């Protein structure tokens, strides 16, 4: 199988990830619930992972690195901490349902700052126009549909000037596109562990600027147990229940691998593969590629449409020939509305640090074969 669906989840992982998960299940118990060796080792593991993530994302205080079960979990914490019914919230035109549906569930007044694809100046101006009076703002770092790298630094500056808290959805950028959390000055940033961070599914990370975040479910933390209220300090305040210790063990190994490789090297590799793949299909009249004319505006995700062939059917034919991709709306109908692909969606090819040139060339030739 040629796996090119890394925007959904990274399938190939460093070998140490699976080994760490297995070892944790055999040797580690629950952190904060005892002073015996397996519990203390689990607590040390969690601290090591927080420190590694804090270093990767430029967070000075590792206690502001909170473990979640997914990016969606983290975004729910962030948005529920900032937004109530009727509150005006500005979002980019490329947000995932993890943002859009959460705000709908909160009955927020959503203002979509829509702007053309791969047009960062227009994105900034659209945000500027919608920010006055907003209670919060949300911007994805990278579109999961088009790989478009949005200008979050400029948007963060606008939000600071307007005193509007900003939530960054780093789901598609984490591990490839750099994120200086403290330097950016946003209020929250959420990401999954299982995509670019190369960890297991069921893991996620929420970076918090301060301790004002509100938990949206409650329970034991192993700390301040006599108090009926949740602790007022991080990370305990946002981490009720038993931690996913095996998952976090795997996540730590994924992050260690990334720190050795560096996100910049990962992005460079993925963009070389994207360029090679796209170059094969660039002159093909039966294919529409959603590719940025400026490579600096796109991460390792490329969407396309095939003339006279439904996207879902195209993906099925690719799967029959051993190429794994995703087709449709990719849980981001808002991005398709903005990008003009809402009718049928796109076929999405997304690359990883473990894909090879030979694989992507074979995938591109398979697309041509299907068209023929």
Instruction: Encode the helix/strand succession as letters.
Output: EHHEHEHEHEHEHEEHHEEHEEHEH
Number of helices: 12
CATH class value of the largest domain: Alpha Beta
Structural class: alpha/beta
Distance between the termini: 22 Å
Radius of gyration: 21 Å
Coarse shape: globular
Number-wise, the strands total: 13
Q: Write down the CATH topology of the largest domain.
A: Aspartate Aminotransferase, domain 2
Mean pLDDT rating: 96
CATH architecture of the largest domain: 3-Layer(aba) Sandwich
Helix content: 25-40%
Main sheet overview:
7 strands, mixed
Structural account:
With 372 residues, the chain is of the alpha/beta class. The chain contains twelve helices and 13 strands. The protein folds into two domains: 2-11 and 262-371, Aspartate Aminotransferase, domain 1 (Alpha-Beta Complex), CATH 3.90.1150; 15-261, Aspartate Aminotransferase, domain 2 (3-Layer(aba) Sandwich), CATH 3.40.640.10. It has helices at 15-27, 37-56, 71-82, 97-105, 120-130, 152-162, 181-184, 245-261, 263-281, 311-320, 333-339, 357-371, and strands at 2-3, 65-68, 88-92, 109-113, 136-140, 166-169, 188-192, 204-208, 287-290, 301-306, 323-324, 326-328, 346-350. The strands form three sheets. It has a seven-stranded mixed β-sheet, with helices on both faces. Strands 9-10-13-12 form a four-stranded antiparallel β-sheet, covered by helices on one side. Helix 1 (15-27) runs antiparallel to helix 8 (245-261), helix 2 (37-56) runs parallel beside helix 8 (245-261) and helix 9 (263-281) packs parallel to helix 12. The chain is globular, with a radius of gyration of 21 Å. The two termini are 22 Å apart. The mean pLDDT is 96.
């Amino acid at each position: 199988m040629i796996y090119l669906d890394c925007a959904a989840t990274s399938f190939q992982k460093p070998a140490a990830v699976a080994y760490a998960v297995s070892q944790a299940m055999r040797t580690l118990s629950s952190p904060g619930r005892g002073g015996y060796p397996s519990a203390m080792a689990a607590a040390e593991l969690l601290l090591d992972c927080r420190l590694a993530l804090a270093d990767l994302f430029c967070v000075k205080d590792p206690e502001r690195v909170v473990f979640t079960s997914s990016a969606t979990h983290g975004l729910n914490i962030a948005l529920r901490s900032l937004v109530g019914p009727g509150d005006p919230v500005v979002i980019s035109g490329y947000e995932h349902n993890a943002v859009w549906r959460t705000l709908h569930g909160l009955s927020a007044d959503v203002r979509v700052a829509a702007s053309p694809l791969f047009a960062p100046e227009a994105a900034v101006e659209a945000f500027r126009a919608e920010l006055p009076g907003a209670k919060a703002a949300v911007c994805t770092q990278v579109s999961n549909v088009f790989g478009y790298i949005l200008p979050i630094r400029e948007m963060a500056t606008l939000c600071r000037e307007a005193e509007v808290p900003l939530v960054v959805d780093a789901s598609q950028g984490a591990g490839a596109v750099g994120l200086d959390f403290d330097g950016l000055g946003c209020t929250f940033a959420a990401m999954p562990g299982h995509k670019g961070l190369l960890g297991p599914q069921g893991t996620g990370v929420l970076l918090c600027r301060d301790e004002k975040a509100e938990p949206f479910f409650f329970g034991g933390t192993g700390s301040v147990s006599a108090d009926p209220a949740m602790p007022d300090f991080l990370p305990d305040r946002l981490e009720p229940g038993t931690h996913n210790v095996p998952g976090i063990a795997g996540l730590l190994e994924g992050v260690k691998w990334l720190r050795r490789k560096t996100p910049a090297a990962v992005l460079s590799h993925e963009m070389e593969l994207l360029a090679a793949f796209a170059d094969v299909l660039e002159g093909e009249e039966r294919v529409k590629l959603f590719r940025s004319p400026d490579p600096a505006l796109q991460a390792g995700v490329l969407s396309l449409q095939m003339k006279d062939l439904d996207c879902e059917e195209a993906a099925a034919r690719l799967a029959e020939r051993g190429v794994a991709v995703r087709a449709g709306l990719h849980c981001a109908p808002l991005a398709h509305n903005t990008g003009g692909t809402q009718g049928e969606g796109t076929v999405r090819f997304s690359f990883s640090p473990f894909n090879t040139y030979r694989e992507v060339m074979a995938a591109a030739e398979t697309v041509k074969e299907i068209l023929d």
